[in-house]
Amino acid sequence: MHPALTTPLFAGPGPTLRVLGRIRTASNATYLAEADCPGEAPVRCVWKPIVGERPLWDFPDGTLAAREAAAYELSAAAGFDVVPTTRLVRSSAGEGALQTWVETDEDLDDLVCLAPTDRIPPGWFGVLDATDTYGRDVTLVHRDDPRLRRLALFDAVVNNSDRKRVHLLPSRGTVLGCDHGLCFHVEPKLRTVLWGWAGACLRADEAALLERTRTVAAEVLAGLLTRAEIAAVMTRADAMLAAGALPAPQDSWPSIPWPPL
Fold first, then answer.
1. How many helices (H) and strands (E) does the chain have?
2. Is the peptide bond before 10 cis (omega within 30 degrees of 0)?
3. 74, 219 in Cβ contact below 8 A?
4. How confident is the model over 36-68, as pLDDT tens digits?
5. What is the model's pTM?
6. Cα-Cα-Cα-Cα dihedral sign, residues 121, 124, 129, 134
7. What is the number of other CB atoms lying within 10 angstroms of the CB of residue 204?
8. pLDDT of 168-218, one tens digit each?
9. For residue 86, what are the contacts with CB-CB under 8 A and spacing of at least 6?
10. Mind giving me the DSSP string for 79-148?
């Protein structure tokens, strides 16, 4: 298993954080930090303080930090194993979400990119046709990769409304996902670049993940999400199990995040 999925983060008292720098590509306050806890080696982390969150009209309940932690807890408990260890903590720098830092080792263009519309490579799915700044026809594509399919299923469960290419973390043979603050809404809001399996029949292992989600969701999400949000997780799992397929885009909500890459 990837080490970022097994980092304790942190069983004892709240950690002491040393902020190393701000991650300026993030839309909310996000920092690279090192966390120290008594008896444990320092861990490099991504720190997202609650005080740095901007209010969102369409996510009025709870905090981004709590949803980040909820995504990890569900991923770990249900067996998806696609989210680095993330905890809601009270640290020396305040309250927020602390996530294990992941060093990536693959080019994101090998997973999601733009391709000429008339030259989509074999083994890739076309997701969205567009025109680039030079007037050329291009298509947003992603690889037919089982690691991405697992993330696509997880995103459907948690109702991720912001699965961009930059939120993929290819590392040590697996692909993890980050930035789950815009998940768990009770209304359908799935926005992702990973639509290649829309409507695809569930495999047996995927159905098992959804069944496990139904079993663990209420316990592991309590205290992080509202009752309605937790119920919606189980409703989405039930709907996919009943349909026997991954969901398809809906006309009532934009299906691609912006910017997608």
1. 4, 10
2. yes
3. no
4. 766 677 889 998 988 887 877 788 788 999 999
5. 0.94
6. negative
7. 6
8. 999 999 999 999 999 999 999 999 999 999 999 999 999 999 999 999 999
9. 9, 68, 69, 71, 72, 97, 98, 99, 100, 180
10. T---S--EEEEEETTEEEEEEE-----S-GGGTEEEEEGGGPPTTEEEEEEEE-TTS-EEEEEEE--HHH
